[in-house]
Write a structure and sequence with these properties.
Elements: H1 2-14, H2 16-40, H3 47-54, H4 64-67, H5 97-101, H6 109-116, H7 120-123, E1 128-135, E2 147-149, H8 156-165, E3 170-174, E4 178-182, E5 189-190, E6 198-199, E7 202-206, E8 212-218, E9 227-228, E10 231-238, H9 243-246, E11 249-252, H10 258-267, E12 272-276, E13 279-283, E14 303-304, E15 307-311, E16 317-322, E17 344-348, H11 354-365, E18 370-371, H12 376-380, E19 398-400, H13 405-408, E20 413-418, H14 421-434, H15 442-446, H16 449-471, E21 475-479, H17 480-485, H18 487-497, H19 504-512, H20 533-552
């Protein structure tokens, strides 16, 4: 044995490169074994729990069928809690091959049948929601923005896309070939049977009727933006009462154009450019000019003297653009000057808009938010509280996706952010496979990953809310959809809970910079609904449970667009 060892030493002494190569390979192999052991040790969903979770509850079922699922920190049994590190979070994938195989009706034939059975209106749901059939009058249009006609190739999607691209809230189709856009519906609703004309470019789809509009509310209207060069169109607004205070810079422009006014206000370093016929005004959004009450664009429809196809407003009604100048009134952020005496959670299911809400809170309060986890990409994008321990007391609130009594009771108060589960699940799936602002690949949606993800995460959406309502102290419920629709009011509620004085001018500043760096583009949408009929049945049952729990505590139930699908 000693002779063999001597030969081994002499071999590597003569060939030191071989020795170091051998050493590197040895260390690499050891590292791989270590990593494999670490991943293999992650907990998976017990079969008994997974089976119970996926089926819709029987008639009159009580909450305990969800209560046994401890999903907040990796779908583990309660007895395993001590063995799981805090920073694992919920983002792992079970390794149990048998579990992957038992997906029931979520895969195979049911998937294909569900896709084949979709009608056009359901396909459009991700980008627009059908509102109804409305009366239209050539003398007084129901939608008074831009319009265009195509008597050969008009489709529902083409009309929606054109209106969304210009930043309008509504799109309406008429006579099978006419498309109208607008921010308000100024007409009465009529019977669906009156919108009976087929689209010229799309058989099987309805595009209004004779003096009747098929109207859609555009889901992407706030995500896309109507632009003029680098400036973002904000709308038509009534002249403020005290013009010199509301918009402090004014310049006469006999040859008015959008370019000239926007360039002037950019040069003067103001974020708003207001065109008023032959005058250009610059300023900030303030309580004197908050940009909350849009007027009919027809009131601003005076053509620019130097631009044939653009409106430049009138002395009484201004066309307003947002320039590329950053509104710095809400950009200062710092840690709390003294250690906070209470821990306030910003709690949500993954994919419910927690990072966006943190961005809004930081701008509105001027203080950094913290996190129960650590995400280097968020820290590098400016969330400096990400690196602090969540109990440091230096941040205004703490992001968390945790659920379960012990984790929830660690906080003194909470903002509970709830989002439509259909949207939240898709957002988290995109984050899981595409990053914070990326998208999951087509193969992930069509493969095993998506049905397994829904199977595991859908019940957690319900248990997360139910646990926070049951165990949370001083919980403020905020619906993502309400925050998006009425940011000024909802963000004000959140700031008040955090114990910070609400400054209206600062909230107005936040409104103009609300998107931040982690807003996923709304332009890339799936061409189909990824939810099968069985998935929808299960998720609808969870929605009803959450709705009942909210109403049982005298809170507003879930928004109406959560269901039916």
């Amino acid at each position: 044995m000693a002779k063999l060892w001597f030969k081994f030493q002499r071999y590597f002494r003569r060939k030191p490169v071989r020795f170091f190569t051998f050493l590197v390979l040895y260390l690499t192999a050891g590292s791989l074994v270590f990593l494999h052991a670490g991943f293999a040790g992650q907990p998976a969903v017990p079969q008994s729990q997974a089976s119970a979770a996926v089926g819709a509850p029987a008639e009159g079922a009580e909450l305990p069928f969800l209560g046994d699922l401890h999903l907040g920190r990796g779908f583990r049994d309660a007895g395993d809690a001590a063995s799981i590190a805090r920073r694992y979070g919920p983002w792992f994938k079970g390794k149990d091959g048998n579990e992957r195989a038992k997906l029931g009706d979520y895969g195979g034939g049911a998937w294909s049948r569900a896709l084949k059975g979709r009608v056009v209106r359901e396909k459009e749901e991700e980008r627009a929601k059908y509102i109804g059939c409305y009366l239209d009058d050539t003398q007084s249009r129901a939608l008074r923005g831009v319009s265009f006609f195509d008597y050969k190739k008009m489709t529902v999607f083409r009309c929606q896309d054109n209106c969304a691209e210009r930043g309008y809230l509504y799109a309406g189709l008429e006579f099978g070939a006419e498309c109208y856009c607008g921010h308000k519906i100024q007409a009465t609703n009529v019977s669906e049977a009156e919108c009976d004309m087929e689209c010229k470019g799309e058989r099987g789809s309805l595009c209004g009727g004779a003096n009747r509009l098929s109207v859609y509310r555009l889901q992407l209207a706030q995500e896309s933006a109507r632009r003029y060069g680098s400036a973002v169109f904000r709308g038509c607004f009534r002249r403020p009462d005290n013009l010199s205070l509301a918009l402090p810079v004014t310049a006469a422009m006999p040859n008015m154009s959008v370019d000239k006014c926007v360039d002037l206000c950019t040069e003067k370093e103001y974020p708003l450019a207001a065109l008023a016929g032959t005058a250009c005004h610059c300023g900030f959004p303030t309580t004197r000019f908050p940009l909350h009450e849009r007027e009919d664009e027809q009131l601003c429809a005076q053509k620019c003297s130097a631009e044939e196809f653009e409106s430049c407003g009138t002395p009484s009604y201004f066309i307003v653009y947002q320039t590329q100048v950053q509104d710095n009134r809400c950009m200062d952020r710092r840690f709390l000057p003294a250690k906070s005496k209470q821990l306030i959670a910003l709690a949500s299911f993954p994919g419910a808009g927690n990072t966006w809400a943190r961005h809004l809170i930081e701008l509105a309060t001027g203080f950094y938010t913290g996190s129960y986890y650590f995400d280097g990409s968020l820290y590098n994008k400016g969330f400096k509280g990400e690196r602090d321990h969540w109990r440091s007391g230096r941040t205004i609130c703490i992001k968390t996706h945790e659920s379960g009594q012990k984790e929830i009771e660690a906080f003194d108060a909470a903002i509970l952010l709830i989002r439509n589960p259909y949207k939240a699940l898709m957002a988290e799936f995109n984050r899981k496979y595409g990053g914070h602002i990326g998208f999951a690949a087509h193969a992930h949606w069509k493969g095993k990953e998506w049905p397994e993800f829904v199977r595991n995460y859908a019940p957690w959406w319900a248990t997360h809310t139910l646990d926070w309502l049951k165990f949370g102290k001083k919980v403020l419920v905020v619906h993502f959809e309400d925050l998006k629709q009425d940011l000024f009011v909802q963000l004000g509620r959140m700031v008040r809970l955090l114990g910070v004085a609400v400054r209206e001018d600062r909230l107005l500043c936040v409104e103009s910079q609300k998107d931040g760096n982690f807003k996923r583009s709304g332009l890339r949408k799936l061409e189909y609904d990824p939810y099968t009929a069985d998935m929808q049945k299960t998720i609808s049952a969870y929605i009803k449970l959450v709705d009942a729990a909210l109403k049982g505590r005298n809170l507003t139930g879930v928004p109406h667009d959560y269901y039916p699908r």
